[in-house]
Amino acid sequence: MAKKTKSTKEDKPSFFSFLKNRQTSTLVATFLMLFSVFLCVAFISFFFNWQEDQSTLQQFTNKAVKSNNLLGKIGANLSHFFIYKGFGIAAFIISFQIFLVGFYVLIKKKLSLIITTTNWNLFLMVLVALSFGFLDKKYALAAGIIGFEINEYLQTFIGKTGLVITLIFLFMAYAIIRYKVTFDAFIDRLKEKRAQRKLEALQEESVATTNKEDIIEEEKSKSISLEKEKKSEFELSLENLKPTISKYSDVSSKKEEIDKDTKNESEIKLKVEDKSDTKVNSSEEKVVAIDVEVSKEEEHETENLSDKIVKDFGEFDPTLELSNFKFPTFNLLKQYNESISIDPEELEANKNRIVDTLKNYKIGIDEIKATVGPTITLYEIVPEAGIRISKIKNLEDDIALSLSALGIRIIAPIPGKGTIGIEVPNKKSTIVSMHSAISSKKFQESQMELPIALGKTISNETFVVDLAKMPHLLMAGATGQGKSVGLNAVLTSLLYKKHPAEVKFILVDPKKVELTLFNKIERHYLAKLPDTEEAIITDTSKVVTTLNSLCIEMDNRYDLLKAAMVRNIKEYNAKFKKRKLNPNDGHQFLPYIVLVIDEFADLIMTAGKEVETPIARLAQLARAIGIHLIVATQRPSVNVITGIIKANFPSRIAFRVTSKIDSRTILDAPGADQLIGRGDMLYSGGNDILRIQCAFVDTPEVEKITDFIGSQKAYAEAYQLPEFIGEESGTNVDIDIADRDKLFREAAEIIVTAQQGSASLLQRKLKLGYNRAGRLIDQLEAAGIVGPFEGSKARQVLVPDFVALDQLLENEKNL
Ligand SMILES: Nc1ncnc2c1ncn2[C@@H]1O[C@H](COP(=O)(O)OP(=O)(O)OP(=O)(O)O)[C@@H](O)[C@H]1O
Description:
Blueprint: H1 2-11, H2 22-57, H3 72-87, H4 91-106, H5 111-133, H6 140-179, H7 183-205, H8 210-238, H9 244-262, H10 267-278, H11 305-313, H12 344-360, E1 365-372, E2 376-383, H13 389-394, H14 396-403, E3 409-411, E4 420-425, H15 434-439, H16 441-444, E5 451-456, E6 462-466, E7 473-476, H17 483-497, E8 503-508, H18 522-525, E9 527-528, H19 540-564, H20 569-577, E10 592-597, H21 600-607, H22 609-621, E11 627-633, H23 643-648, E12 651-654, H24 660-667, E13 680-684, E14 689-694, H25 699-710, E15 719-720, H26 744-754, H27 759-766, H28 770-782, H29 802-814
Parallel strand pairs: 7-11, 7-12, 8-10, 9-15, 10-11
Antiparallel strand pairs: 1-2, 2-4, 3-4, 5-6, 5-14, 12-13, 13-14
The site of adenosine-5'-triphosphate has 14 residues, from helix 17.
Membrane topology: Multi-pass membrane protein
Organism: Polaribacter marinivivus
Binding site for ATP: 477-484
């Protein structure tokens, strides 16, 4: 059937079947090619003579009229028809196409190809005519009437710009569809050129190292593959009607050709590899190719979870809850006239007295220099050569007596200077205001953790110390010498520098009146025990509970530090801010806690060891976890400031005391008995003793500051300290299993896991109120899971693991 159809098709005489005859086809081809030459010549001649020939066009048959066109009247008329009336310059494409058709016929190209190229060239001709028509009218001949008219027509519809865009599109469409010009092809061509250049360069070098051969090989394969692509593209454009399979077979055959061609190029490599086979030159070493496999780099994450959280949410900001908190302003503090008045007469008189007195003891002076401070003037003496300092030191009291002035202190020698200092009080002392201390650059710019502006030194410099470094402070002084003012100066400094989120105070004030003003800032800055009304502690029994609670807080904080694997609160908070500690594991930002105890002697008198033990424990251990103690006392006797306390309070402040013994108790040195009072103090930070005039802050100023802070938005409640259950709350009563808390099992597991029997742990982990956590601990004790109450220490856990816990609870049920 198929066969039949085929034969009928073949039998039907085709329009172009005469071309099958080789003679006719050659004839037609020659005619077409010559005709195209004829047209081309006529067209060229037309451009030079068209104006003169215009009149001859109508008189085609008139022999008398001659045409200037090289090809006579026929040439002129044909040119007029194709160029003037037709497509202008683009008419040359017709001449070219006719030549091409003739050529294709001659070489027996397929008819389909002839038709396709003809169509494309006609399309191109219209496009070119259109483009020329776009030019000015004076170039009308370039576009021909058809080009011009189509142009005019289109311009009325899409305007000039529209036409330009359309033309660009049509030209691109022509190039893309006909020649397959694509962006990829363009890139490939560039690559091909580059590869070719590299190949040439490498060949020039002709260094036969294996490495380079590989590169050449690579480049070659690249160039081959590119060439392949190029060839196949070319095939496609010419024979785009060919079935795909034939195209592939072509490519493979071409590949072989290419391989042959490129054989020379790969000569360098072949030489190296063939060495062993040919054995032409035995002296040449055998090169064994080595296949190097580079192990893949392990992938690494550039950021961990905490970095990601910090990136997304920023660092943790502890001040966020009270982000609008405003620090107290300077104008809340009173300003005094603080310019130190130097009275030359006074200076001269004092100098003479010093010189005369020393002369009495046969001590000659080489030099004397005076430094005037706010309360005292320091006279620095350089004794004559040969005078032993110990002599002056021994005469200290006598000299002071001879100078017959209150508050004289002799420093022999001034540490690090080799001079002798004699401090003589000024007749007119100057008040050092808290304003000047707080507003000083030194304080404002300090980067300390807990900066305190204590006052001014003899050289009138603001004295700023870091409480966090102290780490605890002992303050002593007889009544009315400026202790309370000193405490207020410490607290005020911290209020001016630290956000409520960063520091919390626990204030113990047995006198009940000194620190009451700070009640106003309870929810900002104070810490207190749960379920207590007043944050400021005035009751001795509560002091004991608070101290023990603080010990629990200390233990809890140490646990947190341990879990966070850091050594101190600063590192811990930095880690927490960087979101490296998970709040779900109980981690939280830890504020510094400053415990201030006024009238410590009173406490020791009433509570004795009960107070001393936790204070000593805190003083010994609390520095790393941000709990700092400031203890003030009127009576610095040895039974108040015991050895164990003294040992843990390296920083001490002594206001004026009544006896040398007291001075020795507090400072381990005399001098405090020689002070003049009213804030005149000695500060010992370990080795040196400095004389400082304490900054003066009056009660109305403190009131203004606390009012200023108190009027601002506060936290919902004061900072909660962990509850401490006194011994009396420990229970031995058996609690009925049925009455147990629902969370009993969970609580037991937490306690066993942590191996630490504390109510605060349960509070944290189970998010419970203190009372419920306390009850749970009682129940756990009754069940024999935790041991009895042990004071400030966490209870012992009696069950080592879950297996033992399960067993214990199972046994209970069977009872
Ligand atoms: N730094 C100072 N500058 C000037 N005057 C001061 C200074 N410190 C204290 N004073 C004066 O001394 C008086 C008593 O001070 P303060 O109340 O601090 O004494 P105190 O040691 O606390 O006494 P007490 O132990 O009896 O409470 C103040 O009212 C003030 O006039």
